[in-house]
Amino acid sequence: TLQVKGESFYVSRHHLALQSPYFRALFFGCGVESNRKQVEIKGVDLQHFKVLMEYSKTHRLALNRDNVLGILETADFLQLERPRLLCCKFLERELHLSNCLGMMAYAWQLGCTQLYNSARQVALTHFSAVLAQEDFLCLSKDRVAGLLASDDLAIFKDDLALEAILRWVLSDPDREEHFLNNVVVTGGYFRDVLWFSVDWVKIYDCENERWLDGPAMQKSRHSHCSIGLDSTLYVLGGSMDEGLVADVERLILGSEEGWEGLSPMARAVERAATAALGMCIYVACGLDENGDVYAGIQRYMVKEDQWDVVSYSPFPYDLVATELNGALYLFGGQSLRFDVETDEWTVLNEECLDGKFFCGCTNISGQIYLVSERKSNKAFPNMVLLDPYIDTCIQTDDAIPCPMPLRGC
């Protein structure tokens, strides 16, 4: 029996010990508590403890904006890793321009690495707005220097970095002698080569503004997925004249070896959406060999050269996809966020995207761009900018020179 603030909880010691090193040490360690029938736990909130004990039995965690912080801190204290992860993912979905700096500090204090990185990424990609906040002035010297030195820092003029430094320093004159001499600001980068692949390969050399012939793929195909990861281009699935193929090929930029075959997909599909997250490539949905919609989210683990199916989309129709801040975003009739670690799907309430389908989707500087809307098999030269961290969804007509083909970017 566990007792918290006078209330008793009848629990399975073995069951809790499997879920938490804290309970494993409490019940089966060398302490005096291991021999007691009733153990009192101090330093935790009763209501939050109740929620976690209910989770230990049902594996369902009732989270909301009012209780998530308390439950996270209690789960952290009790070393319940799965509830801790679910709380962190909930907070990642709540990230916004207005709370990213505070969330950075909170996540750092609790050692929630992924939540910290996600909050930091919002701050980096919205830096011009972040530096105007009062929370920016409360950052430590190392935290400010780390933001300014990041390759992901989105600034559109060099003066902005200097403005950030001066604003931070002038808020506390004692900082000047300790900080100004140590700040290093590094620039970003842009891709030198843009790949566009169908059954042949063309390489656009941005520096010289010309198209070059690339090495031919091992198999000609159409309606396939193609995506770049680091300095490697991957081509996945699609159709040949004989039908669908699950074959996967890759081309390492600068290599003389040409295209190399890899492990085939778990399920052959065409017209699927694809996105890269970390060292994994995700292929979302698509059409199977019968022309039916396949709902699976296939994952290719690059280092292991292995495929698996990690989840199934609740709205698997005609999707485009991209990655933003550690989560997958899928668009096609509905707007979805998928947290891979916890297998959680969230429907985004964006009226400007409801019922709409697009030919291309990408992420630039922390914002999602959807291009060339499709209606009745006709594409339009418009574009939608989505930024979930500042509640922005803006459509621009005639934003691109011409309508794009399916899977345009």
From TrEMBL:
Lineage: Eukaryota, Metazoa, Chordata, Craniata, Vertebrata
Protein name: BTB domain-containing protein
UniProt-listed PANTHER family: BTB DOMAIN-CONTAINING PROTEIN, KELCH PROTEIN
Gene3D superfamilies: 1.25.40.420, Kelch-type beta propeller, Potassium Channel Kv1.1, Chain A
UniProtKB keywords: Kelch repeat, Repeat
All copies of domain BTB, residue ranges: 1-65
